[in-house]
Design goal:
Layout: E1 5-9, E2 16-17, H1 29-37, H2 39-47, H3 56-67, E3 73-77, E4 82-83, H4 90-95
Antiparallel strand pairs: 1-2, 1-3, 3-4
Helix pairs in contact: 1-3, 2-3
The chain binds zinc ion.
Length: 125
């Protein structure tokens, strides 16, 4: 079963939830937490055009982090449940289990280009 995960910025009222999902399974929480933990370096590399995440979810995460570089963040799933952003929060991951299976196809949100802050465009081909 898939569980789409989204980043949410808590520094706005109401909170701003990312348009693009950051993960598709609860197991992706680890990567999202790592990205949040390393937000400063990741955003810096991203803005310097020095970081090119190949993964769709990873890119959504970095894009959102770049837009909210110092905000208080949360991770929410498509069912409205909130997950800890702490790296060692394994308990909340293993506690959730559902027996629902099959039948449901992935809900896909259209891919949106995440624009880097304007600046020099790379001369790559
Ligand atoms: Zn924010």
């Amino acid at each position: 079963m898939s569980t789409f995960l989204y980043l949410e910025c808590l520094d706005h009222t109401p909170g701003i939830i990312a348009e693009g999902e950051s993960g598709q399974h609860l197991s992706d929480l680890t990567q999202i937490r790592l990205d949040i933990a390393n937000r400063e370096q990741i955003v810096k590399a991203w803005e310097a055009d020095d970081f090119h995440p190949a993964d769709h979810f990873h890119r959504n995460t970095v894009c959102f982090l770049s837009a909210h570089p110092s905000c208080d963040l949360a991770i929410v799933d498509e069912y409205g449940r909130e997950h800890s952003t702490h790296l060692d929060a394994w308990a909340s991951v293993s506690a959730t289990r559902s027996s629902t299976s099959g039948g449901r196809t992935s809900r896909r949100t259209p891919w949106r280009i995440c624009a880097r802050p304007s600046g020099t465009s790379s001369a790559r081909l």
